[in-house]
């Protein structure tokens, strides 16, 4: 158990350092961390529903609404309704694409360099392993969280992509 605890702690500290690096980067860029994260999420040439963004990126609904409102006012994001009329789709405008490119260019370069260095030492399967661990820990934590403590508007942790 102690060895497992030590490995988990190393992993949690590593993920915390990664999160912290993006937080510090957003401060250096002079942009809110959640705005940078949303730009990152939207910078894939796809349209995304607010619901899907909340589920994939773990944004509370109130937070995503606030960020989107700011980005719409700045002219960086456009909203449209899906054909069924229930979901709002979010997409970057051309100004938003330009802004995201400016904000994220260095991020993508750093990520690429870090990945290349990592792949020189480790198999590409480390990504699958980390993704699998994330799914497992989300399911386990969600399973152990009492129903009364779950917050409305916050997605379940266990909504990952890899099956156990």
Topology:
Layout: H1 2-29, H2 33-42, E1 48-49, H3 50-57, H4 61-73, E2 77-81, E3 88-92, H5 94-121, H6 125-144
Antiparallel strand pairs: 1-3, 2-3
Folded structure, characterized:
The protein has 164 residues and is mostly helical. Helix content is 65%, strand content 7%. It folds into 2 domains: 2-121, Arc Repressor Mutant, subunit A (Orthogonal Bundle); 123-164. The mean pLDDT is 88. Strand 2 and strand 3 form a beta hairpin. The chain has helices at 2-29, 33-42, 50-57, 61-73, 94-121, 125-144, and strands spanning 48-49, 77-81, 88-92. It has a 3-stranded antiparallel sheet.
Biggest pleated-sheet summary: 3 strands, antiparallel
Which structural class do you get from the secondary structure elements?
A: mainly alpha
Number of domains: 2
What average pLDDT do the residues reach?
A: 88
Number of strands: 3
In whole angstroms, how far apart are the ends? 22 Å
Fraction of helical residues: 55-70%
What fold name goes in the CATH topology slot of the largest domain? Arc Repressor Mutant, subunit A
Number of helices: 6
**Strand percent estimate:** 5-15%
- H/E series, N to C? HHEHHEEHH
């Amino acid at each position: 158990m102690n060895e497992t605890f030590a490995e988990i702690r190393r992993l949690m500290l590593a993920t915390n350092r990664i999160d912290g690096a993006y937080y510090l980067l957003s401060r250096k860029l002079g942009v809110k961390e959640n705005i940078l994260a949303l730009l990152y999420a939207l910078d894939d040439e796809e349209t995304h529903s607010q619901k899907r963004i909340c589920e994939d990126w773990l944004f509370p609904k109130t937070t995503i609404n606030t960020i989107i409102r700011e980005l719409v006012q700045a002219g960086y994001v456009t909203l449209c309704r899906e054909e069924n009329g229930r979901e709002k789709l979010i997409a970057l405008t051309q100004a938003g694409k330009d802004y995201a490119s400016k904000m994220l260019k260095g991020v993508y370069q750093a990520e690429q360099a870090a990945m290349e260095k990592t792949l020189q030492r480790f198999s590409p399967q480390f990504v699958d392993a980390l993704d699998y661990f994330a799914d497992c820990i989300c399911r386990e934590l969600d399973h152990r969280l009492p129903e009364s403590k779950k917050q409305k508007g916050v997605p379940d942790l266990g909504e990952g992509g890899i099956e156990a």
